[in-house]
Amino acid sequence: MACHRIEELIELLEPAWQKDSDLNLLEFLANLAKEAGFDGELNNLSDEVLIYHLKMRDSDKTEAIPGLKKDYEDDFKSALLKARGII
């Protein structure tokens, strides 16, 4: 499981870091943390925050989070009926 997250994080980090190649890795990670709204110490930054931020970084702010998109319903009535097992 950890191996998969490491591979996914590296795959997402590489193209993003190449855009800011003048920064060292820690500076780049600090910038990502700040963009994501993380205020704590850098050593407390989770890989999930980095992964989701990198996935959503260049997307529209109203777009659904990738992990939640599969359960996304456009209207409340359909979501409610689906949750109750009617649909």
TrEMBL record:
Protein name from the UniProt record: DUF1040 domain-containing protein
Organism: Frischella perrara
InterPro entries, per the entry: DUF1040, YihD_sf
Pfam family, one: DUF1040
